[in-house]
Amino acid sequence: MRLPSRSLTWPSTKASAPSTSSRLSKPSTLSTRDLRRSSDAIGIGLGRSRQGQLTDSDRSNRLRADSFADDYLLRGLKTGETVRIDLHSRAFNPFLQLVNAKTGSLLWRNNDRALGSTAASITFTVRSNQSYLLRVTSAEAAGKGRYVLKTIRNPPPELVFNGEYGYGLVDGGAAVSRAIATPTGSSPIAGSSPTRFARQPDENAWNVDLVNAPEVWAQGFSGQNVTVAVLDTGVDYNHPDLQANLWQNLNEIPDNGIDDDRNGYIDDVRGWNFADAQDSNDPMDTDQHGTHVAGTIAATHNNFGVTGVAYSAKIMPVRVIGGVDDNRANLFDRNVAAGIRYAVDNGARVLNLSLGNFWAIRR
To answer: Which are the contacts of 33, defined by CB distance < 8 A and separation ≥ 6?
Structure first.
């Protein structure tokens, strides 16, 4: 499905392939004369710390306009291991990019490692037959100055909040494996290690591959018989990648003007619209944000658009935001609360609220 305007835009321009004949990086504690000022990619292993410097003689960053770039080719990687890259600088706001070294396409990026921090950090799992290029650049235009780049193999877990992926990426395979190995109503046994699901070929979709969703699908878990209410700006129920997975109120007869199921909502066949006190049975998306969220959750697994992480689940559209009521905390809260009650009363087992309100927080 087409990503809406609020989604992250991933550059499609390819960078030139890095040189693979560059020398290996030196260990930490480099002197000033060792500062990197070359436009060629050089090798760097894991467990290293390297100093560098962005200058106006460096190459321009093709994946980030108006900024300079230093490239490092990651060496000595092992399939399946976890790698963390940290970038620090006092001279500019560090921006770190992880690039497919073979194709030049952007795999991941990070500006601020945590709230209140200007350091950049990326953590990822090494995939087979994949070469990785680190690109050091700046968040601001033409940022220059010295920096320190660190590579860490199998870093310990950190509870550091990141603006792009919260407290860390979910490993869907590990989570579901542990869940099905634990008896209902009990807690996982401390120190236990459930059998991990077998690795599956990538879907060539960075989001589901990143959380190991294909490993879960291969075990027969794809969201069957689960209704997920999307409380948002509505959902485009005409979208061809969502139509097959939209919830329907089978106890309601369409367009007869009667509350057949006596739930308090007339003709709510496909959900409800609470925004701006409209109280209508048309939860059509007014912004495309809700449609984006719905697609991330349960877009159909086909050869069109994207694939949702739970592509067999049903989406219940509940419009609660996207109008003038958002500017008043009491009306915003009223609409969201009504949407939550509607979703629960009508059988939703999971509720997704990718929303917030400045006025509600301030008041």
So the answer is: none
pLDDT > 70: percent of the chain: 79
Closest CA to 15 of 53, 56, 61, 50: 61
What pLDDT is attached to residue 15? 35
Q: Where are the beta strands (DSSP E) in 32-179?
A: 42-44, 49-54, 59-60, 68-74, 82-88, 94-100, 106-110, 120-125, 132-138, 145-153
CA distances from 218 to 26, 176, 212, 304 (A): 43, 12, 11, 20
Q: What is the dihedral of CA 25, 29, 33, 39, to 10 degrees?
A: 30
Residue whose tokens read 């070359």:
38
Taking the C-alpha atoms of residue 245 and residue 309, their distance in angstroms, rounded to an integer, is 13
Amino acid 21: pLDDT? 33
Give the separation between CA 242 and CA 284, rounded to whole angstroms.
13
How wide is the angle at C-alpha 214 spanned by C-alphas 211 and 216, nearest 5°?
A: 85
The string over 321-358, giving b where at least 16 C-beta atoms fall within 10 Å of a residue's C-beta and e elsewhere, is bbbebbeebebbeebbebbbebbeebebeebbbebebe
Q: Are the beta carbons of 85 and 151 closer than 8 angstroms?
A: yes
276: number of Cβ within 10 Å: 17
Which is more confidently placed, 165 or 79?
Answer: 79
Q: What is the pLDDT of residues 269-294, one digit of tens each?
A: 999 999 987 789 999 998 999 999 99
The string of DSSP codes covering 73-107 is: EE-S--TT-EEEEEEE-SSS-EEEEEEETTT--EE
What rounded mean pLDDT belongs to the chain?
82
Note whether 95 and 140 are within 8 A (CB): no
Backbone angles phi, psi at 215, to 5 degrees: -65, -35
State the Cα–Cα distance between residues 235 and 239, nearest whole angstrom: 9
pLDDT of 285 reads 96
Q: Rounded to the nearest 10 degrees, how much is the dihedral formed by the CA atoms of 265, 246, 223, 353?
A: -60
Domains of the chain: 32-153 (2.60.120.380), 172-217 (no CATH), 227-362 (3.40.50.200)
Cβ density class 246-255: b for 16+ within 10 Å, e for less: bbebeebeee
